[in-house]
Amino acid sequence: MRTISRLPRRRAWLALIAAGALVLTACGDSDDDEGSSDTTEAATDTTEAATDTTEGTETTEAATDTTAAEGGGGGDVAGDVIISGSSTVEPVSIRVAELFAEVEPGVNVTVSGPGTGDGFVLFCDGETDISDASRPISDEEIATCEANGIEYTEVKVAIDGLAVMTHPANDGVQCLTMADMYAIVGPESQGFQNWSDAQPIASELGSTTSLPDQPLLISAPGTESGTYDSFVELVIEGIAEERGQEATTRPDYASSADDNIIVSTIEGDEGSWGWVGFAFAAEAGDAVKLIEVDGGEGCVAATPETIASNEYPLSRDLYIYVNNAKAAENPAIGAYVDFYVTDAGLGTAVSEVGYVELTDEDKEASRAAWTA
Predict the structure, then answer these.
(1) Smallest Cα–Cα separation from 124: which of 98, 95, 144?
(2) Which of 335, 311, 312 is nearest to 322 (CA)?
(3) Can you tell me the distance from the alpha carbon of 100 to that of 295, in angstroms, rounded to the nearest whole number?
(4) Which CATH superfamily is domain 4-159+319-371 in?
(5) Cα–Cα distance list, 28 to 5, 31, 262, 263 (Å)
(6) Cβ neighbours around 330 below 10 Å, total
(7) pTM over the 0.85 mark
(8) Distance (Å, whole) CA 365 – CA 372
(9) CATH architecture of the domain formed by 162-315
């Protein structure tokens, strides 16, 4: 039996590939950072339609023959693989595990998504085999891993963008500059309850945007999230340094490690504003409004094309980090990562969960990094 534990996600559309079924049965549902676990069982002779119930039961279908051809394998590997980290990369690692189950059903993979930072804490303590990350490992985390004797391999797996959102009824906002976003959520904006409260700081920073006079509700990732770290690096850090401020956000907003909770909050309030990984916002469809971002060269909408080309100012790379010693000791880890860097992982799995594939050159670089 093949087991994949994961946090709940609104991803019924993962079941778009036909042939060979995987049945995901949720073991619970939780809004805390720990998440909950789903159990996935491979059903080689049965094909079932995807369902999405309040208990979290889903059915996804995998292309058995295609997966075997792309990923190799022969069902002769057994063992456990423990993965934790980014909630953004989590769906990719889960989908890779589902496809991997078709060729190596004896490997049990556990995937959780408490956030990139929390994932690295576990990884550098030697508690996990692989760490999902929506940003590169930090200098502090590198030092912790080194102190604990953890050597690792970094593998880039996909590209994502940070989608900036508001409610569809908010007609007063179409495009925001970096200065605008700093003024809304930066370290100098604590206590702002109206969009227009941020206007003086935005104007002082050179923005010509006219922010609307309406209540402001911010819902966004918290400090445990790599999505938060990426936003701070891309939007806040430079301006904060110039103004002698700490590179952080205001503390008084509704933060969550669960991207779906953030999206739901945006959907429910006309004055809402926040950001998540592009795939989560795209999944919400017309229930949220994506705001264009001006990084200094004009307003750019977040699309798979602008994210892949880095034309969209809030683009970022996604990674997995593999514990080298554990991979050497446990063939299941090596087999899983071997599969991850095939076209089935870097291509099929990435595209199915809504992220942007690496260029062919970058895919080869990721394979070379892993096999070096």
Answers:
(1) 144
(2) 335
(3) 39
(4) Periplasmic binding protein-like II (3.40.190.10)
(5) 11, 10, 20, 21
(6) 19
(7) no
(8) 10
(9) 3-Layer(aba) Sandwich (3.40)
Write out the residue limits of the CATH 3.40.190.10 domain(s) in the chain. Answer: 4-159+319-371, 162-315
**Dist CA 125 CA 311 (whole Å):** 37
* Maximum Cα interatomic distance, the chain, rounded to a whole number of Å: 65
Q: Specify the amino acid at residue 338.
A: D
Q: Which of 210, 205, 173 is nearest to 189 (CA)?
A: 205
Q: In Å, how far from its chain's centre is CA 82? A: 18
The residues, any chain, with a CB within 8 Å of residue 81's CB and separated by 6 or more, are: 97, 107, 108, 109, 110, 129, 130, 330, 332, 333, 336
Name 36's Cβ contacts closer than 8 Å, sequence gap at least 6.
7, 8, 26, 27, 28, 29, 30, 56
Per-residue pLDDT for the chain (372 aa), expressed as one digit of tens each?
A: 334 444 333 333 333 333 333 333 333 333 333 333 343 333 333 333 333 333 333 333 333 344 444 444 567 899 999 999 998 899 999 999 999 999 999 999 999 999 999 999 999 999 999 999 999 999 999 999 999 999 999 999 999 999 999 999 999 999 999 999 999 999 999 999 999 999 999 999 999 999 999 999 999 999 988 899 999 999 999 999 999 999 999 999 999 989 999 999 999 999 999 999 998 999 999 999 999 999 999 999 999 999 988 899 999 999 999 999 999 999 999 999 999 999 999 999 999 988 899 999 999 999 999 998
| Rounded to 5°, angle at Cα 305 from 369 and 264 | 95
Rounded Cα gap, residues 331 and 327, in angstroms: 6
Residue 75 phi/psi, 5-degree rounding, is 75, 15
**HSE on the CB side for 151, CA within 13 Å?**
4
